[in-house]
Design brief:
- The complex is a heterotrimer of chains A (346), B (932) and C (153).
- Chain A has one domain: Alpha-Beta Plaits (2-Layer Sandwich), CATH 3.30.70.
- Helices cover 24% and strands 14% of the residues of chain A.
- Chain A is built from 12 helices and 14 strands.
- In chain A, the strands form 5 sheets. Chain A has a 6-stranded mixed beta sheet, with helices on both faces. Chain A has a two-stranded antiparallel sheet with strand order 2-5. Chain A has a two-stranded antiparallel ribbon with strand order 3-4.
- In chain A, strand 6 and strand 7 form a beta hairpin.
- Chain B is α/β, with parallel strands linked by helices and 932 residues long.
- In chain B, the strands form 8 sheets. In chain B, strands 5-4-21-20-19-6-7-18 form an 8-stranded mixed beta sheet.
- In chain B, a hairpin with a 2-residue loop joins strand 2 and strand 3.
- Chain C contains no helices and 10 strands.
- In chain C, the strands form 2 sheets. In chain C, strands 2, 3, 4, 5, 8, 9 and 10 form a 7-stranded antiparallel beta sheet that branches. A 3-stranded antiparallel beta sheet of chain C has the order 1-7-6, with no helix packed on it.
- The N and C termini of chain C lie close together (9 Å).
- The chains are: A alpha+beta (346), B alpha/beta (932), C mainly beta (153).
- At the A-B interface, helix 1, strand 3, helix 3, strand 6 and helix 6 of A face helix 1, helix 3, strand 3, strand 5 and helix 9 of B.
């Protein structure tokens, strides 16, 4: 049966700072409890273009697009997610006093294991980008579980230990019933379910349900210092999230062709024009690059996505110009929320 | 003090507490599995097994929470809410309760970044200093023994007394950075220095965060708007500033202003994170920003886009300058009882030179020129006491000077297309209010003063200084301690005038014997087109002249004659050694002169590792203190959310205990101060003096003392601030604007709106400096462009900007932060530069020049232009196999920054003094072969 | 085999590699299980049913102890939550392509979540095994036997 309510989040990439405060807000609340969680970032921020987190997640596949489910890759922690490095603090810093006879040969703070070879980390590609200077380009993409309306992780679990809550549509992995089969990880084309090798079960973003139940926002959104998020229920026509998706239609889904109907949306990023004396309106991030990522629905063609993104940029430009001339714009009012209550409504 | 905790690993305790949280949550209510069996018919919406969900609800439970902020010199001064369970601080969240300024401005909430969200790692982590430590091996060798507080403090006290009695009190040196980040903690050390006669070092000039162009032009240390005023701008040039990374809590005012229709221009040598949200990105060759600004000024002046009335009212542009000697025409030259600090305009209506109001010797403290019709241009003949002299206006001279900066020439220098220069200049001049946000990217150059002055010129030409949304606003360092009167009273109870203050750049330069090295390089540099006229005379002559004429102090007194050296260095709340420019010289030459180095910190850092005694201070969760910043107008408290861990004490208590140890020596001596007065210093009364007869024994009462004695915080109490941050209620004379209800603070409102003169010689925004050195030796009487001074021996410019992952060295060694990077120090390089050196991504590389070398790993990025390499600063020395991030740098003093005896150019600590710039550095990079 | 107090199950099978870890995303361990109806012999082979549950003893090469599981149909198996049924011990050794595993338990049930092994009684029993490693077998992806009969003498 369909859920009664569905949480939704819109992330305005024109305001994302790439600061990872969302990542840290999430990490320090939910995934710093034991060793097996250290590699997982239920919320991560990745530089685009880039390999993302886990590495090359977009090409790994999911339940939506494959008949041979076994062919879907499960990346290793070290090469896919990044080994959570430990450091030799005690040897280097000797804050416990240190014995005079102790060897001091190890005096460099060193990550262990040392990132070499195929080593990776969740933010390895930070600010690397593409293009040729001065027309380099990159932008930041924060990602959490999309709490999809048609979640393939739910279908993937033979134990049916993954489910979607009826009161808010949050998708959860039952931490008591999960047996660590990792079919859900294969099933999720966004690779937003993680495996805890210590607890031997899978874990994922919980959309901070203990807070949502208290009508408080999820931490990645409330702690976002760039104030990029709009959170609300899909049917709450008064929420900024609803207006951006349904009325102004400036927010798109990430890879809607994955057919999972994500409930996280993105306002695609503007970018400075290609460098030239004339400074045309050609944005330096090729619109095709954005269209490869963002769209409305699974059945849209690439060309349709390109047109939609151009249309969104036109809308934003028009509304910006209106405001610059002293007129009011509902869209801009939404994009510049005064306080938390204006952007988070749960 | 946590009894019995000394043997317990804090981190393990934290972990155990977490495990308990979970076990409680997971405790099964049912024992019979059969009761639990239920088939899942519909996992979407109808899941039967939801009892487990208590797991995460339990995880989110807490016993209490408290308020604090961070004393880290990031300019954030952010209010954080720290959640506590079982006396463990387990989760940090922005408090997000800053009151609104007005409903049309975005709020400051939530304020705080990914670093503030993980301060707890330091509270409980292995980096935390837990006990007083005394060195047992060689400096830097890492051999320590635990000591009791009593032993450590009397060890230090004895050394201090011995240094004072053998060498004098000015060999005892105190260094910390930025009172604004922790007013009480800073005052603690400064107060003891003030009472015993020690030297307090500057920091703002030393770390090159001081924009020398501001004291030169405006007679202020720095005054910038708070971040909310960015939203009031219609045009923002973000110039050598990377607010997306370095002002994370404030960056939304830029992105939101952009959505609001403000045009955002990013000027920087590389495509940095702030550029991605700009409307135009202008790649400028590094260090040529001054030329670009002057190229824009050329357009504005020649196309008459300037605000003529503004220039006449608020700048020195209409002031008269003698064409024979380049000096301002002074009243003392015109009439026999005239004053040297009075200057003239040419009044077109009367055809005469008339005195300007508001100048330094003018009793009329207003800029209101009444009926004077000032000439902006022209040449005039004046009758003076010594005959007829020809005079012209500053603006005429400026226009002439700007001839060198036509768009084509500037394009050659900067690499920026000429048409673009013209376009940006036009847009900047025609869109009001317009603002330049400037940062370390343009301030850490040797010629930072010229760059500052050129940029300020743009803001002044267009009439933007002093209006909401407009101006030149510089953000580097947390220099603004709003409640300054109370702070100064607490920090310097005997008064500022009785305090020995040291411009640190000069001190570090002389005592690290940089002269020997730089002097040699300067001689070798002859013939190098970039270097040949760096110093008309040897730097030692300028230093000698400056010290002898009393322009700059240099401690200990007699250093230049007798070779006296400092003996003791006490560092607290700062990582002096790691951040020092010319690190290799400091370590080799200055360090060896010191009999005692004490580091007081909550965590081990590079300075601590190379110190003799380490004292453990409280974390930011364990004390009362106060913090302010220039980025917002609120005052944020620290409060003790958890009890001090292990043997740590607050800075206030540490210096109080040190005062007690010194009192125990019963030492006394008569001290002759720099102003010639003498004072008898009797250590036996030190405790009473430190605590003001016991009234300031507690950190909280010291904080309250600051609040009570500052007009900015009148009527506030520490407890009120703990309830909610309060906005400053008024501003004293140190600041250039009134604090207005419902308005974001912006600078120079008193000049513009109230016509109050500035603290400059001319009382105006002064672009013409007729100091002899500027006129005759350096030809910098007006802003000019001078290229970076780093020679051409090495090909790659080496930049060490502030980054998003650390605040200086803090969080550079934090595990949770490192895991979101590449785990160790990296250096960025353009793909072509990497290919030319046969380097691949993540290769270990050596970055080197004549000053030193570092080993790091390579990150190849298209954000970099060719010829530039970049390493985010702050990496601790112990994160490198070799060197430190400052190893390739040196200390270069720009002589004009030693000048004094001239209006606004007079030494005041952290206001005027030579900057420790470091961006004029070039290196080469090669593959580093690991030797196993 | 039993000694009157404890019952011992001996398993031996060929396994080219020793897969004894689940310590990373792509790593799966070898496992075996035996299933016995909890109340009634008519339990359905595949995990029993709500009214006819089964008791499963599950060994996986990475686990510190084998698990006592109760299931009432597909997707319902769960580890019995009571302490008393945590009474299974084991011995395991992989050498030269052969797994030797011994699983032992007191014959008397520790709780209602276990079958009691009583002398003279017959039991239906089924076996399953999962190849870990590159085969990545887990969950329903396994080899299962038909019902067999176990008679305790």
């Amino acid at each position: 049966m369909p859920v009664q309510k569905q949480v939704r989040m819109v992330a305005d990439l024109n305001k994302c700072l790439g600061c990872h405060t969302c990542t840290m807000a999430c990490k320090t609340m939910w995934t710093d409890r034991n060793k097996g969680q250290m590699h997982m970032y239920w919320n991560n921020v990745e530089t685009r273009p880039g390999k993302g987190y886990p590495k090359d997640w977009e090409t790994q596949g999911g339940w939506f697009n494959t008949k041979d489910k076994n062919s879907i890759l499960l990346a290793s922690i070290n090469e896919g997610y990044g080994t959570p490095w430990e450091y030799n603090y005690d040897q280097v810093l000797k804050t416990n006093g240190g014995d005079a006879s102790e060897s001091v040969s190890e005096s460099v703070l060193t990550p262990s294991p040392r990132p070499s070879g195929n080593a990776y980390a969740s933010n390895w590609d930070e600010d690397v980008g593409e293009g040729t200077f001065p027309n380099s380009y990159y932008f930041y993409l924060p990602r959490i579980c999309n709490h999809c309306s048609d979640p393939p992780c739910v279908d993937a679990c033979p134990r049916q230990a993954v489910y979607k809550r009826k009161e808010d549509g949050i998708v959860l992995v039952d931490q008591k019933r999960c047996r660590g089969y990792r079919y859900c990880i294969k099933g999720c084309p966004y690779k937003k379910i993680y495996y805890n090798p210590e607890e031997k079960i899978s874990q994922k973003c919980i959309f901070c349900y203990p807070r949502i139940e208290q009508h408080k926002g999820n931490l990645c959104a409330t702690q976002c210092v760039g104030r990029i998020h709009h959170v609300g229920f899909a049917d709450d026509t008064a929420s900024g999230a609803y207006k951006l998706v349904n009325i102004w239609k400036v927010a798109l889904r990430l890879h809607p062709e994955f057919k999972t109907e994500p409930n996280v949306f993105y306002i695609p990023p503007l970018s400075p024009p290609v460098y030239s004396p004339q400074l045309t309106e050609d944005q330096r991030i090729p619109v095709e690059v954005l269209a490869n990522l963002f769209g409305d629905t699974s059945d849209q063609t690439h060309d349709q996505r390109v047109e939609r993104i151009k249309e969104i940029f036109r809308i934003i430009r028009t509304e910006r110009e209106k405001v610059a001339k002293g007129e009011r714009s509902e869209l801009i009012d939404i994009l510049i929320p005064h306080s938390e209550a204006d952007r988070i409504k749960v | 003090m946590a009894v019995g905790a000394s043997t317990e690993n804090l981190a393990a305790r934290h972990e155990r507490a977490r495990a308990l949280l979970e076990r409680g949550a997971q405790a099964a209510k049912h024992t019979l599995a059969l009761d639990l069996l239920e088939r899942v018919h519909e996992p979407i919406g109808e899941y039967p097994y939801r009892g487990w969900e208590t797991l995460y609800r339990e995880q989110w439970k807490y016993d209490s929470f408290g308020r604090t902020t961070h004393s880290i010199n990031c300019t954030g001064s952010c209010a954080w809410k720290v959640y506590v369970r079982n006396n463990i601080a387990f989760k940090e969240e922005q408090y997000a309760d800053y009151p609104d300024i007005n409903p049309t401005l975005p709020t400051y909430n939530p304020r705080g970044c990914q670093k503030g969200a993980n301060y707890k790692e330091y509270v409980y982590g292995p980096q935390r200093v837990k006990y007083p430590l005394i060195r047992t091996g060689e400096r830097g060798e890492g051999k320590w023994r635990k000591a009791s507080w009593g032993e450590a403090l009397s060890y230090i006290a004895d050394k201090i007394v011995s240094a004072i009695s053998n060498y004098g009190p000015d060999t005892v040196t105190f260094y910390s950075a930025n009172p604004a980040k922790f007013l009480v903690s800073y005052a603690a050390g400064a107060r003891l220095a003030n009472l015993i006669g020690g030297v307090v070092c500057s920091f703002y000039d030393w770390v090159s965060d001081l924009p020398p162009g501001e004291p030169m032009t405006w007679g202020v240390q720095t005054d910038s708007c708070e971040a909310a005023d960015w939203f009031n701008s219609k045009y923002i040039i973000i110039w050598g500033s990377n607010v997306l990374e370095t002002r994370i809590p404030d960056a939304h005012f830029v992105t939101e202003a952009r959505m609001h229709g403000t045009k955002i221009i990013a000027i920087s040598p590389e495509y940095n994170p702030v550029a991605i949200h700009a409307d135009i990105f202008i790649p400028v060759k590094p260090g040529t920003d001054g030329a670009l600004a002057l190229g824009m000024a050329y357009i504005i002046v020649n196309e008459k886009l300037y605000d003529e009335n503004y220039l006449k009212s608020f700048t020195d542009m209409p002031m008269l300058v003698r064409t024979d000697n380049g000096k301002f025409l002074r009243e003392s030259e015109v009439v026999s009882d005239g004053k040297a600090g009075n200057f003239y305009f040419w009044d077109k209506s009367s055809g005469k030179a008339v005195l300007a109001p508001g100048t330094i010797d003018c009793p009329d403290k207003t800029l209101d020129t009444g009926a004077i019709d000032q000439a902006l241009f022209g040449t005039f003949i004046i009758d003076t006491l010594s005959g007829k002299v020809e005079v012209t206006t500053v603006f005429s001279l400026l226009k002439k000077k700007l001839k060198d900066y036509d768009p084509a020439s500037v394009s050659d220098i900067t690499g920026v297309d000429a048409a673009l220069i013209t376009r940006i200049a036009g847009e900047f001049a025609n869109t009001k209010p317009a603002r330049i946000i400037a940062g370390a990217g343009v301030n850490h150059y040797y010629h930072n003063d010229l760059i500052n002055r050129s940029m300020i010129l743009l803001a002044a030409l267009t009439g933007n200084v002093g209006i909401p949304g407009g101006g030149f606003d510089h953000y580097v360092g947390q220099e603004k301690y709003w409640c300054e009167e109370g702070f100064l009273k607490l920090a310097y109870p005997l008064g500022n005038i009785k305090q020995r203050f040291q411009p640190t750049t000069l001190w570090a330069y002389v005592h690290s014997e940089i002269e020997k090295i730089e002097g040699k390089k300067e001689r070798e540099g002859k013939g190098d087109p970039e270097n040949h006229d760096l110093w008309p005379r040897p730097i030692s002559e300028y230093i000698r002249e400056s010290v002898d004429r009393g322009w700059m102090p240099l401690y200990p007194e007699g250093t230049l004659d007798s070779g006296k050296t400092p003996r003791i260095l006490l560092v607290w709340g700062a990582n002096f050694l790691n951040q020092a420019k010319g690190a290799e010289y400091i370590l080799a030459n200055l360090w060896s002169k010191l009999d005692l180095i004490v580091d007081t910190d909550f965590r081990m850092n590079t300075t601590g590792l190379y110190a003799d005694v380490i004292l453990p201070s409280s974390s930011m969760f364990e004390k009362w203190d106060l913090s302010t910043t220039d980025l917002h107008s609120y005052i944020s408290p620290f409060t003790p959310i958890i009890s001090p861990q292990l043997e740590s004490k607050t800075d206030w208590q540490i210096f109080l205990e040190l005062a007690r140890a010194l009192a125990g020596t019963k030492f006394s001596f008569t001290d002759t101060l720099p102003d010639g007065s003498t004072i008898n210093r009797d250590f036996s009364t030190l405790v009473n003096d430190f605590t003001e007869q016991g009234t300031l024994s507690e950190d909280k009462s010291a904080g309250q003392f600051i609040l009570d004695n500052s007009m900015e915080t009148k009527g506030m109490t520490m407890d009120m601030l703990n309830e909610q941050p309060r906005r400053i209620v008024a501003t004293d004379k140190e600041w250039t604007s009134d604090m207005k209800d419902k308005e974001a603070y912006y600078a120079f409102q008193r000049m513009y709106e109230l016509k109050q003169p500035l603290n400059t010689l001319t009382g105006r925004q002064q672009f013409y400096i007729d100091h002899d050195w500027f006129l005759e030796e350096f030809h910098e009487e007006l802003p000019v462009y001078k290229p970076p001074v780093d020679g051409t021996k090495y090909r790659l410019r080496f930049l060490t900007p502030h980054g998003r992952w650390s605040i200086h060295s803090l969080w550079r060694d934090a595990k949770y932060q490192l895991r979101l990077q590449r785990g160790y120090p990296i250096v960025y390089l353009n793909p072509d530069d990497a290919a030319a050196r046969e380097l691949s991504d993540n290769d270990p590389v050596e970055i080197f020049n004549d000053n030193g070398a570092i080993i790091a790993n390579l990150c190849i990025s298209t954000r970099m232009p060719e010829g530039l390499t970049l390493m985010y600063q702050g990496w601790e020395r112990y994160t490198f196999k070799k060197g430190g991030f400052q190893s390739p740098t040196t200390i270069r003093i720009k002589p004009t920054q030693l000048a004094g005896g001239y209006g606004q150019l007079k030494f005041k600590v952290n206001y005027w003094g030579p900057t420790g710039n470091q961006k004029d550095t070039r290196v080469e990079i090669r593959k580093y072969m690991e030797v196993e | 085999m039993h000694n009157g107090n404890d019952i011992f199950f001996f398993y031996q099978w060929n396994a080219a590699t020793e897969n004894n870890s689940v310590a990373d995303y792509p790593i799966f361990a070898d496992a075996i299980a035996m299933e016995i109806p909890l109340f009634t012999e008519e339990s359905i082979l595949c995990m029993g049913a709500m009214d006819k549950p089964v008791n499963i003893i599950f060994w996986r090469a990475d686990l510190p102890v084998p698990e006592n599981i109760v299931a009432g149909g597909m997707g319902t198996p769960q580890i019995s939550p009571d302490e008393a049924s945590q009474n299974i011990r084991h011995y395991q050794k992989w050498k030269d392509g052969i797994w030797d595993v011994i699983i032992t338990r007191p014959m008397a049930a520790g709780s209602e979540n276990q079958v009691s092994f009583v002398r003279g009684k017959n039991y239906r029993i089924a076996f399953a095994y999962w190849k870990g490693g590159a085969y990545a077998e887990r969950g329903g992806h396994k080899i299962v036997s038909e019902w067999q009969y176990l008679s305790i003498r």
